[in-house]
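Ticket closed. Logging final result for Crp/Fnr family transcriptional regulator.
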Amino acid sequence: MLHDLLIKNIKKHVQLSDTEVERICNYFEPKVIEKRSFLLTQGSIYKYEGFVLEGCFRIFTTDKKGNENTLYFATKDWWLIDIDSFMNQHPSDLNIQALEDSKVLLIKKVDKMELYNSLPVVEKLFRIMSQKALVAWQRRLIRNHSLTAEERYHHFIQTYPEIASKLTDRQISSYLGITHEFLSKIKRKNTKTE
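Final structure:
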C-alpha cells in the first residue's frame, strides 16, 4: 500500500487506532517529482508538508552571489518542510530539489490544521517530530562549531552512507560549509592514508 511507510513512521511516535491512521493517511496526496525538479523554490510559499516515499531531496538556499548552501538532505522515510513558510505562509528562503526521481506524500496546511482540531493525537505526533528535528539541528550546529571540516566530512559519510553515495562532491561540500576544492584535499589526504 502507498501509505505503508508513512504509517510505520507515524507509529514510531504515537499509538493510533487503525481508524485514526486511515483518517490521517486520507489527507496525504501522492506526487512524483522528477530528477532535478523543484518541490519548492526560493521566494514562493510552501503550501505542503512532505513525506519521502522514494528518492532523495536537497534542501538549500542560494545567496545573492549565487552560492548554494545545503541545509539538509531528505531520503526515504524523511520529512520535507520549510516550517516558516508552511506555518506562516511567508515566501520561502529555501529550495527543495529532487536529486533523483522521487515519490512523496503531501499534506496541505489547511488539512493539517483540520487534523490537529479533529484528532488531537496528530498535534502530539507533530510536536514529537518537531522536537526530534530540533535536536538534530542542535547537534548539527554543535558539530559545525566544534569539529574540523575533515571531522564533519567523516561524520557525514559514516552517519549517512546511503545519502552520501547519491551526492556529488559539490553537494557534499555545500552541506559541510566548505569549498569543493577543500573537500577534494580532504579526500586526497584520506586516499593517501588508506
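The longest strand covers residues 68-75. No further action required.
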